[in-house]
Amino acid sequence: MMYVWMMLKERFIRGIFLRGIDPYDRIKHTFKVSYVKSYTLMNQKFSKVRDSNFELLRIVAISMVLILHADFFSLEGPSAADIMSDLSGSSMRILIQALTISAVDIFVMISGYYGIQHSKHGIFNFLFQTFFYLIIIYVVCIACGLSKLNMTGIKELFMLTSSNWFLKSYILLYIIAPVLNAFVSKANKRQFKFILISYYAFILIWGWLFPTSTDYIAGGYSPLFFVWLYLLARYMRLYSFRLTQLTFVTAIIFYSITAFFVLLICISTYYIGGDAVYGYILLQYISPTTVATAMLLIIATSKLHISSKLINRLAASSFAVYLVCVNPNLLTPYRNLFSDLYHTYSDLMYWLIVLGLVAIIYIAIAVIDTIRIFLWKRIELTV
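The line above is the sequence of Acyltransferase 3 domain-containing protein; the predicted structure tokens follow.
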């Protein structure tokens, strides 16, 4: 045995020296190559540079929010009587709701996909953008007679009312992001997976199946749900599993199938349940089908390779579009506009008008947002 070991050792050393490489240097070289490969993979995996593909998804997500507000928000969900009298029109509205309900989930998951990194510049930019539009819109609405200068308006200005739930939830997510990032960096795959499953099981039971028992997480209108979405997106970025290996086309097909499945359940439960459309429980941010569609669009987007200055510029104003269109002072006029349009035009014409208006609203706000961007560039020099 000793003889065999000596022979192998001699051949190994002879082979190394015949190549003119010192054994110690060869070991160092091997380690260096291994390190460089590991660093390259890490650099590719954890790069903070946002490609245009995910910037495009941010544009799509905010546009989906506007479409949502032109559907169930403005018109309410089709009742049993609506389905009975107009099955095709009601089905179209339910399908559009199913296709777009994941908008908020997607917006939060994009933050989780790249990871929120705390910086003085980042928090000041977020706060400046938020209060820039809260103040400007309130002043303009007072001048136009849409709002009054009163205590309620001032409270809404500083997010002290029940409105602007998304902003308050996202601010808390931003605050605790370092803690979440620390957990992600320390936990192994098994621990991470356990937390994701058990966490979602909790919010699914008490925030979705029995929402009246725990109001603060009901329906997903909660920073607790945002935390889970953030962690889910981090897991999707860090670890490969069967779903993340889908191609772009396959992911889009499954996304569409899931939306049609929701439509089928909603229509079916109408015929089973009579007066109530029980399937609408699937049309919530927290529902498994909504999370699934958000994941599928994230996966589909990750397969794209796009580089566009125009997309990046429009995406830079996506949050501004959201701030304007969900502002409490503008929600009622927004709802009245689409309600009037819906009762004026046919179903198909209505949705074509909605798509056109969404594009016009987005571009118009993006143009106006150049003022905010210009001001911020001047301010950030002093921050």
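Note on the example: Confidence is low (pLDDT under 50) at residues 1-49. Residues 132 and 372 are 8 Å apart (CA to CA).
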